[in-house]
Amino acid sequence: RPIAHLTTWLQYKIVGLNSVESYFVFNLIVWITAIWTVYAFIYIYSQSRLSAAIIAIFMLLDRRALYSMIWIGERQSTLACLFGFTAILLALTSLHSNLGHLKKNLIFFFLLFSALSKEYGLAFSGAILFLFDSNNPNNKRALIWTAVSSVVVYFVMRTLLASGASGDYCEDMGFFFSERRICYSELNYIDKIYQHLYNIGASFAGTIFPTLFNEGGRLYPMNIVKNKVFSFFTICLFGFAIAGVYKK
Predict the structure, then answer these.
(1) DSSP state letter for 97
(2) Half-sphere exposure of 140 (CA within 13 A, CB side)
(3) CA atoms of 115 and 83, how far apart (whole Å)
(4) Do 245 and 45 form a contact (C-beta atoms < 8 A)?
(5) How far apart are CA 52 and CA 15, in angstroms?
(6) pLDDT tens-digit series, residues 164-216
(7) pLDDT in tens, 77-123
(8) Element (DSSP H or E) covering residue 235
């Protein structure tokens, strides 16, 4: 995740530890800017300011946003969102016009920077591949090649500069109703696949229902019942916003 580390290193070189609050200010600015790109994406895609505002407010008030403020390293997630949605916005604004070399290069670098901020950023390259159905075949081919190229370059950099970043890694991870210490180097191939699939599914479900899991990813379905008011409010907001997105 070199982009997130690079921004922290640059701040340290500029202000050192004499202005610790500047690290949190930077995180806050990145978070607000990322929310704006989400708002712009929803509005351009749906032509509904109400849906865009609901999603943006939902993102702003998400309790997990706090970690993006108080944990300096968590800027990795917001940077990934910021770069990824910026790439998508550039692609969206080019659906009815020719995609010039400058925009292609910008989309490529924003997608690459998103992945280099956090691995989740690779999802934006997938979105470029499947989200757009341009009437201009040249644009569609250019977007496909740009998205694929960003993924290829990311993995080449990861392999050459970080030996694949596949060294020993251990962390407490949830797996359905249990939480265990996982060291990927000790898992066989099948168990690695199971854990990765669970992590992906839990990340997706936890985005919509944050009370369904604890911080380690352990499944707590009773939390939905205990927090039924919050859960009902979440479902209503999310459903209403999605309905607005597909209104057209």
Answers:
(1) S
(2) 8
(3) 9
(4) yes
(5) 36
(6) 565 566 777 787 877 778 777 777 778 778 877 888 888 777 766 767 777 67
(7) 889 989 999 999 888 877 666 777 888 889 999 999 999 998 888 88
(8) helix 228-245
